[in-house]
Amino acid sequence: MFFERKTKSKNILGQFWFPALLLVTFFSLFALFGPGPAFYGLGSLFLIVTIYPFMTYLRTHNSGYLVLTLFFITSSLVMITAPPAIADKRNIGLLPLFMVIMYVLMLTVGFLAINRKLRWRGEEVFELAALPIEDIKDSFSARPRPAGKVPVSKTEMIRFVDFITKNLIAFAFREENRVVFVLTLPGNDLPYLLGTKKDYLNDTWVAIDYDGNITVNITEEDYLLFKMDLDFDQICQSLGDLFSEFLELSKQGQESRIIDRMNSLRLFPLN
Amino acid sequence: MKFEKAARMGTILSKDYAEDFFKLLVNYQDISASEAASRLSLHIRTAQDYLDNLADLGIVNKTEVFEKKRPYFRYNLVKTKLNIYLDLSIYKKENPGEGLSRLIREKAENGANFTLARSGDEFSSVTIWEGEGRERQEHKISLTSPQGKFLFHLPFPKSRPLSIADILEKAAVGKEYAPEIQSIVDELIRQGVIEVMP
Fold first, then answer.
1. How many whole angstroms separate alpha carbon A268 and alpha carbon A266?
2. Chain A closest-CA separation from residue B131 CA (Å)
3. What is the pLDDT of residue B93?
4. A234 CB burial (10 A radius; 0-12, 13-18, 19+)
5. Is A166 in CB contact (< 8 Å) with chain B?
6. Which of chain A's residues have a Cβ under 8 Å away from the Cβ of B128?
7. Minimum-distance CB partner of B114 among A143, A177, A233
8. Would B88 be classed as within a structural domain?
9. Per residue in A120-171, pLDDT tens?
């Protein structure tokens, strides 16, 4: 699908901070203390970082993050078992097995990353919502907007929430009378995953109550992600319509079409 | 009776010396300010002002008399029954004309902050910043449930304006709430949060 992007691209260099941190840690420790501490240090770092994908898996049940967790754990095991093997080849132990598993997992993680299965899809949702919108100046308002109604049963809602969360489309807050889907952009998910952010009011969200009423709230910060001043009323309505459409597809058991719609945008995986 | 006149009467009657003053006025054919002041242990200026206010309201009659060549005023009671009657229904907002047919929408960059109610389908309050510089202060208006629902459905800036009647219908707010809706709309128009479109 050919389309003109309406959201701003993020600086790609921002994606490389973690590999850079690993390299700096490894070579600094290597230079200061030798290979053993360098491998142990890197292994410890991998182990600490494992918390992030593991928390994501626990909260979303996204299998990609389980693979990423296992990759970090085996990478850590490789780093921890490597120094004795380097010192004495007879102490090779389980290192080859860990390395094979690590490489297999690394390839799997790479595949998932290229297919954007490890990224929160808030950006794609914004892009889809903005497709039909015209630009108009000074139309922003910092208040939620009702955006229509979609018939939904509690069972259908539970299924929809599972799908949206598992596929990293939005972070769901279940409330007494409604579910609030917070659109999470890559990098903004950590406070929610760690449970340090329990209030979504200052974020962009779409709420659907059990009567089917849809309400949309877009923050100024997220509105500024668009390259032009899109008609705010239209973008809110479009975002509500998009979720209504997603919910309808989910009710019909055609969730794969939701993913297809997002994939058809072909956004750059590291963007 | 006009509200201002009723308010003045209320002020006069609320003075702690008012009853004693009226007892004098009822029993005297006429009385001067100095005579009343001396009887009630008031300052002459206080008694003078009180009697002048009663004269303005038509409760007493004020007559200029002369003692030798020095003029002064004497007051005599003309009304022995006082009624305060106010018809508050005149303040009720009228629907026709400048009422429900007005096309409105939120004004761009108004600086107001709408707080979402717990139910998630209405606002509980709207906060507006008033004044400039050091005088700038927060003014929080708590909303009734119908007002909150109405404002929740208020069209965004630059979007197609809707009439108050249409927004009431969209928000499922009954017409019986129209007066309180118009009251908050008028206030928010005054505060520059809502604009009326021609």
1. 6
2. 21
3. 64
4. buried
5. no
6. none
7. A143
8. no
9. 888 889 889 888 887 887 788 888 999 988 999 989 999 999 999 999 999 8
Question: Measured between alpha carbons, how far is A70 from B157 in angstroms, rounded to an integer?
Answer: 50
Task: Give the nearest partner residue to A213 out of B121, B123, B157, using CB atoms.
Answer: B121
Closest CA to A232 of B129, B197, B109, B116: B109
Distant-in-sequence, close-in-space partners of B152: CB < 8 Å, separation ≥ 6:
A144, A146, B121, B122, B123, B171
Report the complex ipTM: 0.74
Q: Rounded to whole angstroms, how far apart are CA atoms A188 and A122?
A: 10
Claim to verify: residue B100 and residue B20 sit in the same structural domain: no
- A76 CB-contact burial (10 Å; exposed 0-12 / middle 13-18 / buried 19+): buried
Contacts of residue A215 in chain B, CB cutoff 8 Å?
120-121
Domain membership flag for residue B9: yes
Q: Would residue B84 count as lying in a domain?
A: no
Name chain A contacts of B153, Cβ cutoff 8 Å.
146
Q: Which residues of B touch A203 (CB under 8 A)?
A: none
Paired tokens of A134: 């015209």
Contact B50, B31 (CB under 8 A): no
Bridge partners for A205 per DSSP = A182, A217
Does residue B82 lie within any of the structural domains? no
What domain range includes position B140? Answer: 93-197
Which residue ranges of chain A lie beneath pLDDT 70?
1-3, 10-15, 186-187, 268-271
Query: Is the CB of residue A146 less than 8 Å away from at least one CB of chain B?
Result: yes
Residue B82 φ/ψ, nearest 5 degrees: -110, 130
Q: A165-193, pLDDT tens digit by residue?
A: 999 999 888 888 899 999 877 667 777 77
Q: What is the CATH number of the domain that holds B70?
A: 1.10.10.10
Look at A139 and B121 and tell me if their CB atoms are within 8 Å.
no
Q: How many secondary structure helices (H) and strands (E) does chain B include?
A: 7, 9
The structure tokens 């962009």 sit at: A204
| pLDDT tier for residue B91 given thresholds of 50, 70 and 90 | confident
Q: In which band, very low, low, confident or very high, does the pLDDT at B13 lie, cut at 50, 70 and 90?
A: very high
CA dist B101 and B98 (Å) reads 7
A window 205-244, beta carbon within 8 A of B = 207, 209, 213, 215, 231-234, 236
